[in-house]
Amino acid sequence: MTKRKAALKGEASAISRGRHEYNCSVCSHTQREQIEQDFINWVSPAVITKRYKMANRASVYRHAHAAGLFPKRIVFSAGGGERLFADILRRYAHKIIIDPGRSGFQVSPHWYVLGGFDYGKANPTAALVATVDDDGIIYILREYYQPGFSPKEHRPWITQLQGFRTATMFADPSIFYANQAQGDGTFKAIATLFAEEGIDNLSPAPENNELLGMERILSHWMNLDQREPTLKIVCPKALQDIAKPTYGIVNGGCPNLLWELRRARREELTPTQLTRKNPTEKIVDKDNHLRDCLKYLVLTLPEPNRKSARMLAAEAVRPLAEQGDLTSALIRYQQKIQELEYGSQPVTLRNHRRRGY
Fold this sequence. Notes:
By secondary structure, the protein is an alpha/beta fold. The protein contains 16 helices and ten strands. Helices cover about 45% and strands about 15% of the residues.
């Protein structure tokens, strides 16, 4: 191809792209980025059209061709470093993230409190404090995120994390093995070094599998168009989208956890690597310290139910409540809870012979 032909082709492409952008309903859409990400993630164009109130799916296909989205779809299918939680946190932030100031959210003193702990030397040492309500919903309340300290240096800071001292903190099982050389020639476990500083509430996490942990987190956020999440994260509005981590104690929420979750992604693989390696078997091992704390937490607790007994009971009585029959709604609600939690066997009253005196 001559230089003139190449120049003419480039000029034609620029004109064509400009014409497309002028006429394209996706390019002018206020949610263009979300539409493109959905297409790359193999969301059906018909679903995209309905979700974003567009005229027809042909406009989605035209934009995908013009913007080069089809090759990105292929990379996504090949395990091309796609992010695990970013899209969910963007789309359902209003359900998953609780702003304590605006919502007035308060923790009941009767809820179960627990935590996750991940020790790092050069990397940050991280801790999360969480609580679980009566329906099994997990609330991640506050965090600690500090690199470069020894157990002795961490003690005066991490003990200021509200709830840390009284909660069982589930940690990486590796810190319970005596492999840290001491000056006297002996070896001690990292957990022992913390215990010597008065931090004796660390406990080995029962499970540490990375993929299982990520799948468990995602299971708490399934089908959020139809239900509420069973894992929620407390964070003030002003800290929900920080550009870089902030070190220290955050008793008011978990901005660094959100930062890590948005960056979590699968390892990027080339098509050649796919022939000999399963792309789903590797998560990028970076910026995952609070994410590991969350992993220990969710793997310690039972798997989430799709809907709790109270949710199902509330759905069952909604028609009665909407009709204004609150007495019947209350009776039916209690019956439904009884059926779901204790089985549907009726309680029978036996006739007893009255004793004579």
